[in-house]
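Pilot study result, target chain (585 residues):
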Amino acid sequence: MEKGAFFLLFDARKTSRYSALVTPDVYQEDTMHFTPSPYAETESRSLDPMTTRGMVSSPHYLATQAGVDILRKGGTALDAAIAVAAVLAVVYPQMCSIGGDNFWLAHEAATGALHGINASGRSGEKATLGYFAQKGLAAIPLRGPLAACTVPGVVSGWDAAHALSRLWGSQLSLADLLQEAIDLAAEGFAVTPSLAFWLHEDCKKDSTGYRELQRLPGFARTFLPTGSPARAGERMRLPDLAATLSLIAQEGPRSFYEGDLAQRMTSWLQANGGLLTARDFAEHQAETVEPLRVRYRGLEACNLPPNTQGVASLSILNILEHMDVASLGEGSADHIHAVVEATKLAFAERDAHVTDPDFAEIPVEYMLSPAHGRDLAGRIDMRRALAPNAPLEPKGDTCWFGVVDAVGNAVSAIQSIFHDFGAGIVAGDTGVLLQNRGSFFSLDAGHINALAPLKRTMHTLNPPMLRKDGKPWLVYGTMGGEGQPQTQAAIVTRMVDFGLSPHDAVAAPRWLYGRSWGLPANNLRIEGRFAPQVAASLRQRGHDVQLTGGYSDLMGHAGAILRDQGTGVLYGATDPRSDGLAAGY
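Predicted structure:
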């Protein structure tokens, strides 16, 4: 590997389904002991990457390598996370870009402080209910210039994270952190199976001859330069994006929001029917926020406040805290049923209350109180499923990534453009693929998440962390929209209640409660590796169960880093469903 980076990559699909990663006969008594995975098919064992220094987990191996390189140069966990985020914005455009949003949860080792950064963009000043009503639209379009009605927050998030890193003592410039991303965009990178799949999926020919992405401004020029989607292993170059990233590195992150670059983007948007203005960009800033916390089995579960759905992720744990999850059996119908029912209750409250806190009073303290969690847990009948929620959003393409450095700083971060390839438009010659996060707004004036100018939509992105005695114990997260709180709960219960290793917890078969494309109601999808009696038992309780493939992209791409507080050893994990890598040095 380049620059001396050391990698360990294990693919559960090529060994056993899930193997026992750590057993008592392997390690001394003062180290972590993980419970053997119930999904093991053989006696073979694969091992989580381990290190006593720094660890990075991301859904793309080149992004992980960039993060490890920065740690080797003495960068902080935040520095490495910025480098990871920048590379992901180049090599994983189906999941994120610099035209999207990001959120950051950062533990500061020197003080024990927990920092939150909200870098989601507000709607444009011209984005009103009346505007869309005049166009006869009942919903904001999912693609095209009108879908890109919120300011991209990604670069402001990098800016805020870098400023915090400097306070932690970092000596690296933002240009240092962006260089690998610039080089990859300019020189090209190998198209991964995931990118190839989404290019082919979104650019299949239909009755008109082309899918909509090929018809949208700038998409074909940027991502289909030969006229057809690239295949896995082909080289992709993004020279316009390389030039934009170089400009940000040279002139600073505010150049994305003010000056020539911002003017080029907003002028192009307005010329193509978009709503965002130069003033919308110039007034955007990332915000520091106070993280939320609940207790779970003596640990401190942390996440970000609204406008994120972090409150829903924590609410699920707050409900499960009052249930004897460990007695249910890992991966059993009881285990899945308990988490799904807690999810329904948490989502009902989220959908009733969560929006931009500048536009509504949100009873977060009540929603996360132990007494309320106990009351909600009491509503769960282990023999019968609760009535389904209102149909949930079926999409959410995102990149979660985590870093822990040698001194104990830890970062859980997440970056997204909402749907695959976002709004599907590239702003002129900037190479900036714009998000469609604004399409999540409702055009119903009475809806809690109704569109209004300069408003942040309810955001599915939420970066979690578990702390023990005020220090990071588990840095974890996932992509997947509505699936994020559910997969977070799966990982936490598997590791905390059942003792699985990070790898086994991430790779084990998962479930997803929500709506599939084209269906009018929510169902419960479970991966095909579960025992047949699991699906049968769930159906008997009233769940509408649909089986998926053994390793389904629908379940999202998760990752985790565990820190053994006794030895300081870090264990990393990445998702076999992704193109990712967990690596230490």
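One observation from the pilot: The two ends are 12 Å apart (CA to CA). A full batch analysis is planned for the follow-on phase.
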